[in-house]
Amino acid sequence: MPQHAARQQTHARLSRAAANLHSMTMRRLLLFRHAKAERSEPGMEDRARRLVERGQNDAATVGAYMASHALIPDRVMASPSKRTQETWKFAAPALKPAPVATPVERLYNATAQDILGIIKAAPTAAHSLLILGHNPGLHAVALLLVASGDIETRERLREKMPTCGLAIIDFAFDDWAKLHPQSGRLERFVTPKSLSAAAN
Q1: Domain span at 125
Q2: Which residues, 6 or more positions from 99, have their beta carbon under 8 angstroms from its beta carbon?
Q3: pTM, to two decimals
Q4: Over the stretch 93-122, which tens digit does the pLDDT of each residue have?
Q5: pLDDT tens for each residue of 65-79
Q6: Angle at the Cα of 164 (from 197 to 31), degrees rounded to 5?
Q7: How many domains is the chain partitioned into structurally?
């Protein structure tokens, strides 16, 4: 084998090993707010609110973005509300394979501290974890966890976590139990509006 080809193969092996080591020592959190839902009507239970057509389309758009950028979580934990369950129903088909969303009762009306506790109890085997929930808790926990990242992106997140917003936060540890405030780096923050603007 020519020396050049041998060096290339060695470099490729080292790159794969480094990538594997990186995934073992890092954790990625995807915070996903439910898509736009119908307004609450008198006598309607809040958790029964369904997605409107725009919400269905937005969820599918974000799902397609996740698929095209290889943002496929190892585990998905979702509020049991109809609007969160439907958000995953429309987002997941773009992912191959599509992870099954586990309903977590505590994520409905969860505070930032509730969500923090749920994440910390996640299995070590889940290197990437997606939490599908509601504001204000979801937005609050995102702000609680982010310590670094692009300044403009962080400012956009600070201002608002809109429906179908997706915040991706990376952590330099190997166990969710080590999670603590101000320990993450905001890797990216996408919304239906930002994706639409990027496409035009």
Answers
A1: 27-199
A2: 72, 73, 74, 75, 76, 92, 130
A3: 0.87
A4: 999 889 999 999 999 999 999 999 999 999
A5: 999 999 999 999 999
A6: 115
A7: 1
Question: Does the residue 9 lie in any domain?
Answer: no
20 occurs within a structural domain: no
In DSSP notation, 34-52 reads ---BPPP-TT--GGGPPBP
The two counts, helices (H) then strands (E), for the chain are 7, 7
User: What is the signed CA dihedral for 104, 95, 128, 87, rounded to 10 degrees?
Assistant: -30
C-beta separation of 102 from 76 below 8 A: yes
- For residue 4, being part of any structural domain is answered with no
Q: What is the CATH number of the domain that holds 73?
A: 3.40.50.1240
Domain assignment present for residue 6? The answer is: no
Q: What count of residues does the chain have?
A: 200
CA dist., res. 173 & res. 188, Å (int): 19
Question: What does DSSP assign to residue 200?
Answer: -
